[in-house]
Design goal:
Largest sheet: 2 strands, antiparallel
Strand content: under 5%
Number of strands: 4
Mean pLDDT: 85
Radius of gyration: 22 Å
């Protein structure tokens, strides 16, 4: 589906990254386009820190309220309507919105999707994506790991392979962190198994990144690494964080 408004936004982001690459060329040389993608990603992630703070605060509040929610579920499990009302009352008493954490997550999607769209689109607003014609250490930004591997260009496959390892390592630590922060669930509940399954979601980015252009892999590796360290730091610094030495 061709949506003109989206095309204009992608074109604007594309032009911004190309302009930044031109400025970086005297310093970064042939890797200027890749450096521009990294720099823009870092700037965007830094601008989204306030949303990250709200997200972690919501996570901390859910963790704090978990015992009370569990008690309500135990007492009113045979009366779903009363359970729902009591749960909403609890959120009101605690001053926590039931939707806390959801809105910050949704608010980030348009921005990160825009950058990702620039990195994967062969054409933008009717013209070729010039970013994908550039290289990083000899690897074309427009070629995927799978493309390089199946064509026998093992040198070009090396750069995305390294980035895939980075994404995989970050995904592993993200999963471990998510399991530590997960709200306790009754082992007899159907949600118990679901929690474990959902913890593997970060690894989906590894699989997808093997098939998308190197420009997108570069963006994903920087963005996911930033997100992991940002959340780790926030959990340590915000009051009540599970990783806060004062409360661990």
């Amino acid at each position: 589906m061709n949506i003109p408004f989206i095309g204009v936004l992608l074109d604007g982001a594309h032009s911004l990254i190309l302009s930044l690459a031109t400025l970086l060329e005297p310093v970064a040389g042939g890797a200027a386009a890749a450096a521009a993608i990294v720099l823009v990603t870092l700037i965007v992630r830094a601008a989204l820190i306030p949303l990250g703070v709200r997200l972690i605060r919501a996570e901390i509040n859910r963790k704090r309220m978990a015992p009370k929610v569990a008690e309500l579920q135990r007492r009113f499990k045979k009366n779903p309507e009363l359970l729902q009302r009591k749960t909403l009352e609890l959120h009101k008493e605690e001053g926590v919105s039931p939707f806390a954490g959801i809105l910050p997550s949704l608010a980030q999607i348009p921005v990160v999707s825009l950058l990702y769209g620039v990195a994967v689109s062969a054409t933008i607003n009717g013209h070729p994506n010039e970013l994908l014609t550039q290289q990083l250490f000899g690897a074309p930004l427009g070629h995927s790991f799978v493309t390089a591997l199946t064509s026998g260009d093992f040198v070009a496959a090396l750069v995305p392979a390294v980035l895939l390892v980075v994404i995989g390592v970050v995904a592993w630590f993200t999963r471990q962190q998510a399991l530590r922060m997960a709200t306790p669930v009754d082992p007899a509940s159907p949600l118990a198994g679901l929690t474990g399954m959902l913890s593997w979601l970060p690894f989906i980015s590894v699989v997808i990144s093997a098939f998308v252009p190197l420009a997108a892999v570069l963006y994903v590796s920087v963005s996911t690494t930033w997100t992991f360290f940002e959340r780790t730091i926030l959990r340590r610094q915000l009051p009540g964080g599970a990783l806060n030495p004062a409360t661990a």
